[in-house]
Design brief:
Blueprint: E1 3-7, E2 10-11, E3 15-16, H1 18-28, E4 32-39, H2 43-53, E5 58-63, H3 65-68, H4 73-86, E6 90-94, H5 97-110, E7 115-121, E8 127-131, E9 136-140, E10 148-151, E11 166-169, E12 202-206, H6 216-226, E13 229-232, H7 234-238, E14 259-263, H8 269-272, E15 280-285, H9 292-295, E16 298-301, H10 304-317
Parallel strand pairs: 1-4, 1-6, 4-5, 5-11, 6-10, 7-10, 12-13, 12-14, 14-15, 15-16
Antiparallel strand pairs: 2-3, 7-8, 8-9
Helix pairs in contact: 4-5, 6-10
The structure holds flavin-adenine dinucleotide (FAD).
Function: The electron transfer flavoprotein serves as a specific electron acceptor for other dehydrogenases. It transfers the electrons to the main respiratory chain via ETF-ubiquinone oxidoreductase (ETF dehydrogenase).
Subunit structure: Heterodimer of an alpha and a beta subunit.
Keywords: Electron transport, FAD, Flavoprotein, Transport
């Protein structure tokens, strides 16, 4: 069976990201799954169990300073060398900021086609892409080379398929061009008690209607009571109410939780692009005509400063 490479998205602190498990699940429909771990020393050993749980039968481990000491570029070099050697049927990479850069560089190095933001990938390499902020769906195929496809987080539900992966060490030699940008310091993101936004099963997001950074406490409180992550609309982020890394939408993160609560968010198409596949959507907005209500399963028309504390009170009683 043809080999399919999955470039692993993971971090030492958070472990293997859910999008990686989604890619492993998708890759199983295309061939024999090999995971490519590119990171610091010991990364493959740290992630091997999880990767095996979701069907990786082989792990290629490119580890150490040559990979990890520079920004992104050596990772693309490592994958390109591997592709030339093993001639896989496809390469799957996460549609994250780093993943897209690896994919772009890889496609250039191999003079190969590239598809980004796929939500499905058929066995014949046809990718389903969501475009124009979710307004249209396109089916596309790479016409030159092998399918190099980036997969959007939260596209599918990952399914385990236990395997015992063999680990093969890769010798990665970063080129001079790869070494043009160097990592000078790593500061681990403060890991609070809340789940990671793109992986959370409950997300509570606030918009411009929250009206101030201070008032975002209302959003945080309900998120904490529900054990969820906090998100924000771009208007809230641009107004300085909440940090950028929590932005949900076309130019932010894509979430697909079991429950999405939109507080003081109008429901612009660019916001919907990042949350419309959520299983159940609850909206709180004082404007009964707000477009978010077209999408919501449950809506409360009212002032968030009254509705949300009341909801919090009710949850606390349970
Ligand atoms: P608004 O549209 O101003 O809505 C605020 C809502 O709060 C209103 O519906 C109002 O009725 C309600 N409200 C006000 N006060 C209260 C109250 N006291 N109680 C209850 N409700 C109240 N946006 C994103 O979110 N994510 C993106 O990734 C993103 N990417 C973009 C990319 C591009 C290229 C462009 C052009 C735009 C992008 N946007 C994005 C911006 C998007 O178009 C909207 O401007 C933005 O989503 C609006 O945010 P909002 O709903 O918080 O604010």
């Amino acid at each position: 069976m043809a080999e399919v490479l999955v470039v692993v998205e993971a971090s030492q602190a958070a472990g293997v990201k859910k999008v990686t498990l989604e890619m492993l699940t998708i890759a199983r429909g295309l061939g024999e799954v090999s995971a490519v771990v590119l990171g610091g020393s010991g990364a493959a050993a740290q992630f091997a169990e999880k990767l095996g749980e979701y069907g990786a039968t082989k792990i290629y481990a490119g580890e150490g300073e040559e990979v990890d000491g520079y920004l992104v570029a050596p990772k693309a070099t490592a994958v390109a060398e591997l592709v030339k050697r093993v001639q896989p049927a496809a390469v799957l990479i996460a549609s994250s900021q780093e993943g897209k850069e690896i994919a772009g560089r890889l496609a250039v190095k191999l003079d190969n086609g590239l598809l980004t933001d796929a939500v499905e990938l058929a066995a014949d390499g046809t990718a389903t892409q969501v475009v124009f902020a979710g307004a249209a769906i396109v089916k596309s195929k790479v016409t030159k080379g092998l399918p190099i496809v980036t997969i959007r987080p939260n596209s599918i539900t990952p399914e385990p398929a236990p395997a015992s992966p063999a680990v093969e060490q890769l010798t990665v030699v970063a080129t001079d061009a790869d070494k043009l940008t160097k990592v000078v310091e790593r500061v681990a993101e403060q890991k609070g008690s809340r789940p990671e936004l793109t992986e959370a099963s409950i997300v509570v997001s606030g918009g411009r209607g929250v009206a101030s950074a201070d008032n975002f406490k209302v959003v945080e409180e309900i998120a904490d009571l529900l054990g969820g992550a906090v998100g924000a609309s771009r208007a809230a982020v641009d107004s300085g109410y909440y940090p950028h890394q929590f932005q949900v939408g076309q130019t932010g993160k894509t979430v697909s939780p079991q429950l999405y609560v939109a507080i003081g968010i109008s429901g612009a198409i660019q916001h919907r692009a990042g949350m419309q596949t959520s299983k159940t959507i609850v909206a709180v907005n004082k404007d009964a005509e707000a477009p978010i209500f077209e999408l919501a399963d449950y809506g409360v028309v009212g002032d968030l400063n009254k509705v949300v504390p009341q909801a919090a009170e009710e949850i606390r009683k349970r």
